[in-house]
């Protein structure tokens, strides 16, 4: 791509100001008080896509917030890249912990970002990262360097579960047809260490209820003589891990993808300081499955965690009660090949099997999603890797993320294409937290790197 | 005692009407909106004691609600009985579950009480049972049959923890000096099976807090790699009982009183239907310490129960969080000879010892009390037994209660005397629940039996 650096330099201030204008709109999808702002944000994205050179731009209504669609086809024989992003943001509370107003963006220099960072809700997640793609497109169209076709699909419900997206994708398979999907909604290892997220964990989230006696009982009169649902629940949960922190649900590991030594060695190249990790969390030791490192435990291995537990008297002081019921919310992070419906069912059967006499149990699945993995030998991965190499001067590290992005497996299933996760955010960007920000370096580096992905993907695809 | 039956017969309606007048006063000590009613109740008791023949009657102010004191000394060389009771009542909610208004007493016939029962909050606990003692005194003084000295101490904070009573007892040891303490605030096995509560369990109540990472974490990014405080807490709680449901805290059983085979056989005479017990609680099995029956498990054996647990996300739906902290309220019921302070300390040391790396723990003792036992060979027990034999025609069954009445061990410690628990209530009286009631049969039988205790106690004491 010619002149990209000079183009960015010449337009840098405008790129920032446009993003700042978008960040000023408080498009909080979780709070209906901001409905008009969410819609305003969609219009902003529509207008931006038009200005960046998209031909067909429309606001597609859904049962929830609309999806903004835009495309530019230069030649049906050339490959098509589908860009996904979202224009909605997380709520900003707790407001009192922000150093500046979340919807009045300010640029401040920090130790990590001496050239400045934009502080605002959504700066990184995902308005900033999504807008990099709009500006990258603008560069390619305005300089006549767009090497392939492009489609944009920018939604407004990502922070509340993307509930309308699934229907939209299923109903618009032709419209969304593509050769690869490109998303910037993840992070990179460090400012000078590019990485590509190659794997995401799946999820099975269930709620369990243990019922003992038909009413709350006096612990003096019944204590020790009937099964106490809270004691029983703690005992059941305790058995979910053995002494090596392996999960004990029969069949749980049957389909778990085992990585080769080579793949694990590649992963281990990512810089990681256990000392800093522990210090950042104020813990004296890490904890997890025997035989795996911390970075493996939270990315390539499945887990089971209690996310919430409650039962009995939880107010001030003391009440000598034996509760009739106890509850827990439990989630399992899954790795590629584990099917979340199957795992949910294995959990259910196992939980019922281990319930002792004297109680009954109920298991309610909440939701879930499949894990995902992008092979590092795919054209998409290679194109992304080459793009980073060109702009950062370093081969990016393939990285498994412990989190889940259920839409990625939805895309694979419905659109039959792989997703490349080119994240430019940093762990320190404080997404979902007060003082979210996005480094100007990262923003501009994204705009510089993305067009190279288009170029290399088109070239590799042509081979 | 001469003419007691005819005296009761002649005064039956008045005895009922006086109790009904007392029950009409909503003396709910837990709710400050009823402050004036609680005080009015104290005045009612004061006036009743005067009318029943007490010489010195006074309302003794405390930091909380007053204690009504009254006495009648006929001869300093004769023994003195101290009667304890309380004039405050539990809150009445849920009001919608009452068939009649809780403070508008009504007499209704039931299957168990064809001769009628008084329905009202406090009917049994403890206004009805306390007022039996006032009417028993009236009988003895008005017929010149009082065989010994008597003191009354009726408090107004029993339902909120008797917080002023301890100071009052400590500061008035001479005034309260006695040979035996008599309380009717417990139950009997069945309407035709008298029983005497000979043992109460002690209590140690603690709150525990487990802290892992210094903030709530995303379960996708950290799940499986750090100790989850909820998982850790459940694992710690699960280890408190072994496979036989013995408690595993080192030293916990060291001082536990082991009953003889004979004592256990006596206890086993109490009628008990496991089928009915399970049906009443809707459970398919009981649960508890190996080697003991249900009635032993909830009376002569110490226990450990979680009374409340909480941590993480407990709202609707799902949140993939790893909580920074998890909490539980845990109580241990103790048996005679186990010191609650010592047990609390054993718990604390053990909980700290079993905490794994990666978390810190904090243990906060809430409160506690010693267990209590009255030997069946004591003069007090023998006098009570003989009194029941006379009025019921049956030897009462000595019964251990699983509950705790901390004031009983306070009395023993400060006043150096044993307490006799002559309860006339029934399990079905619904104390602390909607539709509390007290059988007229039980009320009058109490008035008939109590004077006999005075008589036999004085006689046995003189031997």
Q: If you had to describe this structure to a student in words, what would you say it looks like?
A:
2 copies of one chain form a homodimer. With 463 residues, chain A is an alpha+beta fold. Chain A folds into 2 domains: 4-200 and 371-462, Aminopeptidase; 202-256 and 302-369, Alpha-Beta Plaits, CATH 3.30.70.360. Chain A has helices spanning 4-23, 35-52, 127-142, 165-171, 219-222, 229-238, 261-267, 274-281, 294-297, 340-354, 379-392, 406-415, 440-462, and strands spanning 56-60, 67-72, 80-86, 106-108, 117-119, 149-155, 180-183, 195-200, 202-211, 217-218, 303-312, 321-322, 325-334, 360-369, 372-373, 397-400, 419-421, 437-439. In chain A, helix 1 (4-23) packs across helix 13 and helix 4 (165-171) packs parallel to helix 12. The radius of gyration of chain A is 24 Å and the shape is globular. Strand 11 of chain A pairs antiparallel with strand 11 (303-312) of chain B.
TL;DR?
Two copies of one chain form a homodimer. Chain A is of the alpha+beta class.
Topology:
2 copies of one chain form a homodimer.
Chain A: H1 4-23, H2 35-52, E1 56-60, E2 67-72, E3 80-86, E4 106-108, E5 117-119, H3 127-142, E6 149-155, H4 165-171, E7 180-183, E8 195-200, E9 202-211, E10 217-218, H5 219-222, H6 229-238, H7 261-267, H8 274-281, H9 294-297, E11 303-312, E12 321-322, E13 325-334, H10 340-354, E14 360-369, E15 372-373, H11 379-392, E16 397-400, H12 406-415, E17 419-421, E18 437-439, H13 440-462
Parallel strand pairs in A: 3-6, 3-7, 7-17, 8-16
Antiparallel strand pairs in A: 1-2, 2-6, 4-5, 5-18, 8-15, 9-13, 9-14, 10-12, 11-13
